[in-house]
Design goal:
This protein has helices at about 5-10, 25-40, 50, 70, 80-85, 85-110, 110-135, 140-160, 160-170, 175-200, 210-230, 250, 270-300, 315-350, 355-375, 380-410, 415-420, 425-445, 455-475, 485-495, 505-510, 520-545. The chain is mainly α and about 550 residues long. The chain has a single domain (about 25-60, about 70-240, about 265-290, about 340-500), classed as Up-down Bundle (Growth Hormone, Chain: A), CATH 1.20.1250.20. It starts with 5 loop residues before the first helix and ends with a helix.
């Protein structure tokens, strides 16, 4: 066998197989270190306003009418518009879904460590390339750096821990994936205030401070993500938690298979496309609301938010500024429920089952959407806000429950690759949801409807999307036997994936799960919980403004 270089030896999948005494509770904080870093993709809008004044510093220097989008990619004498900058956000999620779909199978073969290292290089390297683009004022470099290269890093980083966590926690699949994917939702809570503080410190009379902020954040993320990458371990083939074996009802539950489907077949299997529809409809309904949450609250309630009986159009400038602060608190509150829902709902799915959990999402979510116009008409802010908080918790829960649903239906051998294919539903929903909300709003305004009523029809359409998702979910049944790998095919896949069974390792690991020093486990959790707690604290401060 040819020798590998030391670097690639460290990244080889064989080097990541856990030895005797490895504590599986080290894996979730490793996954969180990755997801909390790449989750800053949700918070990139904090850069839009400063970047739109990168040349003018105090005021934007607008490009002339002769400068179209393609000219804006290379222009150096005028500032980028915020609508143009928004393309970075679009590219994030297009390339997240496409890269996860394209390289999910590669990830399962090479292991989570190598995939996470590549993710680190793409995400942090993309930010550094974007920083150079800001310095020379070339927008195409931002699109290539953060949008394309960073988007590829997002996709690989997002799916890198999924199959690993599911294999380490066969007894708590939903909870395990919920912990990691919660981190992706929480990344912006940490990154946005961090970025705002850095830009404030770096800003000067000649610089808005974004370029050095990108450099510093890339360095911070590099340290966190590399630490997470090298903490990843995978269990040896056949490992099970100490004292655990599948419960009799799990062995006989036809919705939880003990066999495995090869990723090359999933596009031919109707259950995959039904689950694709389930995720797409759930995400479409929620993501449109996220994008319009602040203006929606302001337009629906207007002066009521500050105790003034006026519509939005009747407010003066100081009053508009006051309700904008309240709306920002509402958006922060939704982010807390989005993040909390990712962990809570996924954990509940271990008890309820995945299919029943999604039934709750669609039935309860649909009823809540239908209730929104009534609570808005009655001026009941508590019911209006409460409905959207629950809706956003189920939006987040839909993301974190999906990997466990896939493992139940298709097995765990290639669940990472299959999850990558499923994320194309996210990319689709990222276009569908905002288009429905934004264009319906414009259409309602063109009909002359008051601003406080322009979302009524939209809520009914979003409820309709959830009904479609409900039907897809109800149609999901166990996968037919013909799609599962035979014993010989499974053995070949394990050979390609460099899986090895070491009976000595297996018996030692099963009997000494807690032999990893407890202080190491505690420190690993502190490293990820500390910044997450700081982010939550800042968010709670914003939320408090909503209630004052």
């Amino acid at each position: 066998m040819p020798k590998t270089t030391p670097t690639f030896g460290l990244l080889a999948k064989e080097r990541t197989i856990a030895g005797p005494g490895f504590n599986r509770w080290l894996v979730p904080p490793a996954a969180l270190a990755i997801h909390l870093s790449i989750g800053m993709a949700y918070g990139f809008s904090v850069f839009w306003l400063p970047l739109s004044k990168a040349i003018g510093i105090k005021e934007s220097i607008a490009c002339g009418p002769e400068v179209g989008f393609f000219q804006e990619l290379f222009v150096t004498q005028c500032d980028w518009s915020i609508s143009t900058l928004g393309w970075m956000f679009t590219l994030f999620f297009v390339f997240l879904g496409s890269s996860a779909a394209l390289w999910g199978g590669w990830l399962d073969h090479v292991g989570p460590r190598k995939a996470a290292v590549v993710s680190t290089l793409c995400w942090c390297g993309g930010m550094l390339f974007s920083a150079l683009g800001i310095y020379v004022h070339q927008f195409w470099m931002l699109l290539l750096g953060s949008g394309v290269i960073g988007g590829i890093g997002l996709g690989l980083g997002y799916i890198s821990p999924v199959s690993t966590l599911i294999k380490w926690f066969p007894d708590r699949r939903g909870m395990a994936t919920g912990m990691a994917i919660m981190g992706f939702g929480g990344g912006a809570m940490i990154g946005s205030p961090l970025a705002a503080g850095l830009m404030k410190d770096f800003a000067s009379t000649t610089d808005v401070g974004v370029m050095p902020t990108f450099v510093v954040m890339a360095m911070i993320y590099f340290v966190f993500m590399m630490a997470g990458s090298f903490t990843y371990r995978i269990p040896a083939t056949g490992w099970t938690p100490k004292g655990w074996s599948p419960a009799p009802e799990e062995l006989t539950n036809s919705m939880i298979t003990q066999r495995h489907v090869h990723v090359s077949h999933v596009f031919k299997i109707k259950q995959f496309w039904l689950l694709w529809g389930v995720l797409c409809m759930n995400v479409s309904a929620g993501i449109g609301v996220i994008g319009m949450s602040s203006p929606m609250l302001q337009e629906v309630f207007g002066g009521q938010l500050i105790g003034v009986n006026k519509t939005l159009a009747e407010l003066d400038k100081p009053q508009l500024a006051a309700i904008a602060v309240v709306a920002a608190g509402f958006t922060a509150l939704l982010s807390l429920f989005n993040i909390g829902g990712r962990f809570i709902w996924a954990s509940l799915s271990d008890l309820l089952g995945r299919k029943k959990t999604y039934i709750v999402f669609f039935v309860l979510g649909g009823l809540l959407y239908i209730s929104v116009p009534g609570s808005a008409l009655a001026g009941n802010k508590v019911l209006f806000v409460g409905a959207f908080c629950l809706i956003l918790s189920m939006y987040g829960g839909g993301f974190s429950t999906a990997p466990a649903y896939l493992a139940d239906l298709f097995g765990t051998q290639m669940v990472g690759a299959i999850h990558g294919r499923l994320l194309t539903a996210w990319a689709t929903a990222g276009i569908l949801g905002p288009v429905i909300v934004n264009y319906m709003r414009e259409y309602q305004l063109s009909l002359g409807l008051p601003r406080e009523q322009v979302y009524n029809q939209t809520m009914l359409i979003l409820a309709g999307l959830l009904i479609i998702g409900l039907l897809c979910n109800l149609l999901i049944h166990p996968v037919a036997d013909r799609w599962f790998m035979t014993d010989d095919e499974l053995a070949e896949e394990k050979r390609i994936a460099h899986e090895k069974t070491n009976q000595t390792t297996l018996s030692s690991t099963k009997n000494s799960e807690q032999s990893t020093p407890l202080i190491i486990v505690i420190l690993a959790w502190v490293v990820v919980i500390a910044p997450l707690s700081w982010g939550i604290y800042n968010t709670v401060i914003n939320v408090s403004k909503f209630f004052t």
